[in-house]
Design a protein that fits this description.
The protein has seven helices and ten strands.
Amino acid sequence: MEDYVIEVKDVSKVYRSEGGVETWALRDVNLNLRRGDLAAIMGPSGHGKSTLLHIMGLLDRPSKGTVVIDGVDTSRLSDAELAYIRGVKIGFVFQMYNLINRITVLENIELPLVARGVPRAKRIAMAREALLKVEGDESWLDKRPTQLSGGQQQRVALARAIVHNPSIILADEPTGALDSKTSIEILRLFQKLNREGCTIVIVTHSPEVASYTRRVIFLRDGRIVGEEERG
């Protein structure tokens, strides 16, 4: 029996305007992510990739269907229960880093641990370890994010995503704001984290980014239209 860490079952998402117009972002999506997968969800902009990632990450609820995380059906969970699962099992990485510029790099990386009530001394040690794991430099810890380059900021964002040792990392166009050389460095970090046991899903429109994964799921018009497995 397959060991699935995420199961998306008959998921649809529809947005309704005040005038009653319906826009379908997802239609009857079924997708299973195996533990240890390194997968890309690929397709044109505006075809539902980010919506699917947000629903898989419990940041949004489907209009219809179910998401199962590590065997737990999340469809009837409260917002607080969903937040707990996110805080324990899932790390997020975004295209524009989503760092808070008024606080230090250290404080940015610590944020998931603050939410879990981890004592400060332990938070500092875990943040430092996470930054080194993504090939960052301890000298960044006391700086503000705006004092770092784009690639350095994405490493900080990746450190924040892994600081609480999640089993799943969900990344939405994580190299979209980076130059080619830095993009390759970040993608190789994802490969390294995957080898260490993380299940990773990357949303992208780029075949080059998808080439760094072992499984590519093609999404168009809110539906899965194909899939490739790579060695």
